[in-house]
Specification:
single chain, alpha/beta, Rossmann fold, seven-stranded parallel sheet, binds NADP nicotinamide-adenine-dinucleotide phosphate
């Protein structure tokens, strides 16, 4: 984008923003982009995009070894500064742990990318209570709490933002992945609503809703041979991350990467659920 267009877009994004004397001072602190689930898959590819664009990145995940390996890969690919935080973001003190890390680094959360999530495949009635609760904690509660916690600071600064990772599945109920699809519908709804509330106040609030992506995600939930992976175009993490980053920078609220998936998204919003839900159920059923 030419410099004058970037300036114009920035002015538009901050049209209602006014500096507040009550705002905490971030002078001398480093702005960080915190990416949950940044140790592999889409999160790692997003970390590469942000790092390539000059952001200081902190990748968060549970597995220490994979985190350190991802850090080396991203630093080698981009030459940027990358920090890691080994943390289960469903822990009740997750926000406090992120804050502590930022204090140690003399930084603040400029951008949060809520990417970590799990899927659950199979009939809803057959899941165990613990798995369903964990899915809700990870896919719904954790991103909501992180977004709520860091948004006031972003609004006070009139910069930064939130990139939430949902799914094309968030646009339709998903039999045989019912809780996962419902969790992504929540993320889309939350993001679109908050984007409206904060429009013109300097922050970017965006949700990325990819169709199937080539990662270990599907196999991990036991859906590796479901028909949706055969009949849907499966995209690469690099393409998804490039689109996600670009959409975020341009201030796109809902971003569905890929032409066919965009068409799918329009169809899912227009067609009645009586028609789409049985088709989606057939695609998602475990084979
Ligand atoms: N793959 C797809 O087809 C697809 C399509 C649409 C949307 N999405 C969405 O894209 C996002 C990423 O998916 P992906 O396919 O890249 O997944 P993935 O390959 O399974 O990676 C998940 C990442 O999240 C981390 N993670 C899992 N549980 C965590 C926890 N409790 N606390 C902190 N980190 C945790 C994992 O590391 P640890 O296990 O070490 O913690 C890993 O870094 C998810 O929101 C998913 O719903 C995926």
């Amino acid at each position: 984008m030419p410099a004058f267009a970037t300036k114009l877009a920035e002015r538009w994004r901050r049209r209602y923003w006014r500096a507040s004397p009550m705002a905490p001072s971030d002078e001398g602190l480093t702005p960080f982009t915190v990416i949950t689930g940044g140790s592999r898959g889409i999160g790692k590819a997003l970390a590469v995009e942000f790092a390539n664009a000059g952001h200081h990145v902190i990748i968060v995940a549970r597995g220490k070894e994979q985190l350190e390996a991802a850090r080396s890969d991203i630093m080698e690919a981009t030459g940027a500064r990358v920090e890691t935080l080994s943390l289960d973001i469903t822990n009740s003190d997750a926000v406090a742990q992120i804050d502590r890390r930022l204090t140690k680094l003399d930084g603040f959360v400029d951008i949060i990318v809520n990417n970590a999530a799990i899927g659950l495949a199979g009939p809803f009635s057959e899941h165990d209570d613990r798995s369903v609760r964990y899915l809700c904690d990870l896919n719904v509660s954790a991103p909501t709490v992180l977004m709520r916690h860091y948004l006031p600071g972003m609004l006070a600064r009139g910069r930064g933002g939130v990139l939430n990772i949902a799914s094309l599945g968030g646009l339709v109920p998903g039999p045989y992945q019912a809780a996962y699809y419902a969790s992504k519908a929540y993320i889309i709804s939350l993001t679109e609503a908050v984007a409206h509330e904060t429009a013109g106040r300097g922050v970017r609030i965006s949700v990325l809703a990819p169709g199937p992506v080539k990662t270990a995600f599907h196999k991990a939930m036991g859906a590796g041979s479901s028909y949706y992976l055969k009949f849907h175009g499966v995209m690469s993490v690099e393409k998804i991350a490039r689109s996600g980053y670009r959409g975020f920078v341009w201030g796109q609220t809902l971003n569905v990467p890929g032409f066919l998936h965009k068409m799918n998204a329009i169809a899912l919003r227009l067609l009645p659920h009586t028609l789409t839900v049985p088709i989606v159920g057939w695609l998602l059923k475990r084979r």
